[in-house]
């Protein structure tokens, strides 16, 4: 198996086509002025970047994987796309008003990354951690979701459930607050399968195993479309 964080390189197109976007209303919940310079860290194919670009004066997107960043550059030409990592952000000290991480923070929830985010943030700037979560009931067969859930190893489950307040609290930040914006995604049968293909728990596996898993999932999925009610969460805090 390849490194889970790097597995998205082989699933970039599926990620772009099948992963849900974020609602503009999510940004209404944050104290960030439209004139702000904001950073999207671990930006992927720009699922959140495109929303930020509609709102803020200057948007910088940092993404380490070339394949993901190439799509981002094509779909969000108004953003400045840079190669880099959360532990080595290619920006000057106190250069941005907000740092966003969308469905990415669990990959770099460590002290070095938090220190880098604090370094590039201006005093009083906002750190915002966003992710989408399907509301119950999920409109998929139980056999399909059970099969998919069983593919995750204990470390992956632990990474998602880790209380981020602990690592953020070790940096120069206040208490994390959480807000939610509701939206939905209508998915074809093809896109539900592409979503599964885009998950690191599938994408990281050897090709023959990956294709076997996809055949199994295909056999368990009825015809669509499927309507997913989604909660877009954002945990945010300000830099001291």
Q: Can you describe this structure?
A:
This protein starts with 11 loop residues before the first helix and ends with a strand. The longest helix has 14 residues. Helices cover about 35% and strands about 25% of the residues. The chain has about 240 residues and is of the alpha/beta class. The chain has one domain: Vaccinia Virus protein VP39 (Rossmann fold). Strands 3-2-1-4-5-7-6 form a 7-stranded mixed β-sheet. Helix 1 crosses helix 8.
Remind me, CATH topology?
A: Rossmann fold
General form: globular
In the CATH hierarchy, the architecture is 3-Layer(aba) Sandwich
Mean pLDDT: 93
Calculate Rg over CA atoms. 18 Å
Within CATH, the superfamily carries the name Vaccinia Virus protein VP39
Structural class category = alpha/beta
What is the number of strand segments? 7
Give the low-confidence spans. Answer: none
Beta-strand content: 15-25%
**Biggest sheet layout:** 7 strands, mixed
Helix segment tally:
10
Count of the separate structural domains: 1
CATH hierarchy class name: Alpha Beta
Order of helices and strands: HEHEHEEHEHHHEHHHE
Helix proportion: 25-40%
Brief summary:
The chain is an alpha/beta fold. It has helices at residues 12-18, 49-55, 66-75, 111-120, 142-150, 154-161, 164-169, 189-198, 200-203, 207-220, and strands spanning 37-41, 58-62, 80-82, 96-102, 121-134, 177-187, 226-238.
Give the tags.
Rossmann fold; 10 helices; 24% strand; globular
SSE layout:
Blueprint: H1 12-18, E1 37-41, H2 49-55, E2 58-62, H3 66-75, E3 80-82, E4 96-102, H4 111-120, E5 121-134, H5 142-150, H6 154-161, H7 164-169, E6 177-187, H8 189-198, H9 200-203, H10 207-220, E7 226-238
Parallel strand pairs: 1-2, 1-4, 2-3, 4-5
Antiparallel strand pairs: 5-7, 6-7
């Amino acid at each position: 198996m390849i490194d889970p964080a790097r597995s998205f390189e082989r699933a970039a197109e599926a990620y772009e086509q099948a992963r849900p976007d974020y609602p503009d209303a999510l940004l209404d919940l944050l104290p960030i002025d439209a004139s702000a310079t904001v950073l999207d860290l671990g930006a992927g194919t720009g699922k959140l970047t495109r929303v930020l670009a509609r709102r803020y004066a200057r948007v910088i997107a940092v993404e380490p994987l070339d394949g993901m960043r190439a799509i981002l550059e094509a779909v969000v030409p108004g953003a400045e796309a840079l190669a880099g990592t959360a532990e080595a952000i290619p920006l000057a000290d106190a250069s941005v008003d907000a740092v966003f991480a969308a469905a990415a923070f669990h990959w770099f929830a460590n002290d070095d990354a938090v220190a880098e985010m604090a370094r590039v943030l201006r005093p009083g700037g906002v750190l915002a951690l966003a992710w989408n979560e399907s509301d119950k009931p999920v409109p998929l067969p139980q056999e399909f979701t059970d099969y998919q859930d069983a593919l995750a190893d204990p470390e992956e489950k632990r990474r998602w459930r880790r209380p981020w307040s602990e690592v953020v609290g070790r940096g120069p930040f206040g208490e994390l607050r959480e807000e939610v914006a509701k939206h939905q995604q209508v998915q074809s049968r093809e896109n539900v399968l592409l979503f599964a293909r885009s998950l690191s728990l599938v994408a990281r596996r050897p090709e023959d195993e990956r294709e076997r898993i996809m055949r199994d999932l295909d056999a368990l999925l009825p015809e669509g479309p499927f309507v997913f009610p989604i909660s877009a969460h954002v945990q945010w805090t300000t830099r001291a």
